[in-house]
Specification:
Elements: H1 2-70, H2 78-91, E1 95-101, E2 106-109, E3 114-116, H3 120-127, E4 132-133, E5 137-138, E6 146-155, E7 161-169, H4 171-181, E8 187-192, E9 195-199, H5 206-209, H6 213-222, E10 225-231, E11 236-242, E12 247-252, H7 259-298, H8 309-322, E13 328-335, H9 338-345, H10 347-364, E14 370-372, E15 377-383, H11 387-402, E16 405-407, E17 410-412, E18 416-422, H12 429-445, E19 450-453, H13 456-472, E20 481-490, E21 495-507, E22 511-513, H14 515-524, H15 527-548, E23 555-559, H16 562-566, H17 570-581, E24 588-593, H18 594-599, H19 601-614, E25 617-623, H20 629-635, E26 640-643, H21 645-650, H22 657-671, E27 675-679, H23 684-693, E28 697-699, H24 709-712, H25 720-726
Parallel strand pairs: 18-19, 21-23, 23-24, 24-25, 25-26, 26-27, 27-28
Antiparallel strand pairs: 1-2, 1-7, 2-3, 4-6, 5-6, 6-7, 8-9, 8-12, 10-11, 11-12, 13-15, 13-18, 14-15, 16-17, 20-21, 20-28, 21-22
Helix pairs in contact: 1-4, 1-7, 9-10, 13-14, 14-15, 15-17
Length: about 725
Amino acid sequence: MIRRQKNINILLVLVFLSVLTFAFINYNSTKQLVLDSVERETNELLNNFTLEVNRFSMEGIAEMQLMAMHIPYLIEKEEDITLFLHKQNANIPYFCGFGFITPDGEVSAADGTQFQVKQKESFERAMAGEIMFSPVFNLHQDPRQKVTAISVPVANSEGKIIGVLSGVINMANIISKLADESSLPGIVFLLKENEVIFSSQKEMVFEKVIPHSSQLLNEINKSTNGSWIVDKPAARFVKFQKTGSNWVVIVDSISNPDTTKISKAFWNNIIMVSLTLSITLVVFIYVLRLENREKKQSKRDLLTGLGNRVQLEENLAKKLQYTSEKKITLFFINIDHFEDVNERNGYLIGDQLLFKVSRSLLELTGKQNVYRVSNEEFVITSYIDTIQEQRQFASTIVRMLEQPIYFEEGNVLLTASVGVRSYSADDQVELMMQDAAFACKEANKNGGNQFVYFTEQLAKESENNRRIAKNIYQALENNEFYLVYQPIYSISADQVVSFETLLRWKSPVLGEVGPVDFIPLLEENDSIVKVGSWVIRQAALQVKKWELEGYKDFTVTINISVKQLQHPNFLRDVETILAETLVEPRMLVFEITESIVAQNIESAKRILENLNAMGIKIALDDFGTGYSSLSILKVLPFQFMKVDRAFVMEVESDGGESRAILKGILEIASGLELTTIMEGVETKEQLLLLKEMGAHRIQGYYISKPVDPMIAVEFLKFEVMDLMDIS
């Protein structure tokens, strides 16, 4: 779940970053295209106006030079000059008026007026032979117009300057017409000596439109052309260029409609990124809610609705963290023999039973304090201070679960084992859970339907179990396991004819550890499958070794666990071991208990028949301890029956009841042609009694305890009675 959430979060981040990157690239690409377009159009507009101003200036000068060449012929009559100027004023466009200025500065205008020249510097320089453009001034006839005068010297045939021809022009009119005809966007300003003569948009005031206009004017005074980038991100450029007649054309791209594309692209991409971010956040929140729901579900038991082990450990950790005066107590509850209940009633009834048990526990405690931690195991947490109250509560649980549970099909009787573990200083969740479970197991071992309080003695045993569990994981890899063999004596042959293989463990840390302590741990962590395969292989190698030493007529029995037999690779592993060790299958006997085959008789039958087909014989171990013994004897292919030691132990002491049962077992075995092996024979009297009753073989300390292979093989050399006499 955590990995999936991480992957989704990474995917969401990648999607968002991809969209963000695309938006960034798209915006920058659009922006650059607009910048290039606007700058290109601004340059084109500037060049067009500059060229037009230069063209008009040159054409105007040429026109006036031609006029100036004609004036000397009219100089004798002032009215002829006025008439000539008037006629030319009508023929030549864009000139506001012409005038002839005499050497003494008197102006005769084309409209007949006369006045003294105002632009004396331009006049004097023209009289000196220069063609001059005057500064801007107000037109004499119409002061509202700002004009400039082109002054051209007029010379006679001897080359003597006899006056100046002045042509007044309004450059604003010329630029205005050009601006009207131009399709290129932008604001055009025309300046002369830092004075704005023309603006293509009259409402636009130069000083207000152009930021830092004074700095721009300083730049214009220093250079003939240049750019003044007002706002590059917004594609606004101000470009200027001087003409040959000292006019300055300025173009501002602020009115270029393309500039809006940048802002539009910016906001489009912002909207796209925002939308993606919103969708990403919505998806993230949705996924987070799903994860939280799954996390909650992962902490709930689907059948009962109770919190599961994960929820219990989480809640218990919090309670332990904040425990002060209140002492929390765990009540670990296990339904006794629940697998048998399932077998008898079916799993549907079993689930209903678990649900009803959960409801009963909830009625007793409250929803927040009951958890289902495995199939038939429940835990109750409660704040109960005194040991007496804890014991009383545990007893209440046991009595409550003794009550019959009613179904339409009939009543079901249950019992439960309860382990009680109270809080102590520096307790941790795992430790409390382990201790409570251990106490529950002790209650179950003692017969169930009771509670066991976790005491210091149990704490020592639990600690020992934990130490064993900690060290057993590497025992097989470290070659710490070894095998011993207990002889099995044939009464009729008066000799040892078989050996039971028994697993032993010598830990470098713990020393010798008894099978009763470590075998259940191997079962719990499933290591029994791997270890069991090792046992079969080692026993097979030992049989082969003895066979090569010349011993022929014997067998070795090997205990097979429930999980080992049910493992899907069991038969294949056995075949592999037989092929690799070259052992004779007839020399091997596999021992299985009633509980193994009772769980799934059809599956067990198939497996046992396959083993028989290989040549391996099967022994039913601990016969007489289960309810299904007689039924499985009829169905499954056994060759040996091992009778539980309890019958042998009681055969001499219980007034004949065990003897009668034992005699019946031996008769059944005889009728089914099964070889019987009596376990737990410890005295000569027991041996003689069993011989009299018709037992075939015996096993027990009277013959020998389990011994290592070197001692075990000695039993094959002599008759047992002779060997016992020798010893």
